[in-house]
Amino acid sequence: MLIALCVIGIFGVITFALAAATLGTLNRRFDTITVTATTNKAKLNSPLAETIRIDDLMNHLRQLQRIADESNGNRAINTRGFNETVNYIY
């Protein structure tokens, strides 16, 4: 029994040492990583995109919010809010 506990203890110490060495190596490598992110402005190549006016879009969003507010804040499928949304769209 004592031998089994010693073997388990040795395996535990070895596992801990390997984990510490691995984490130390990874931590040093993360410090050397330098990444530069760039963002690109989306290009609207569609002639339809040019016809969208922000005021019209905001009016539709307000209408959808009004439908949700009148339906207990819900427009999920099989609810009154969903049915009113479908009626508004079509």
Automatic annotation (TrEMBL):
This is Uncharacterized protein. It comes from Adineta steineri.
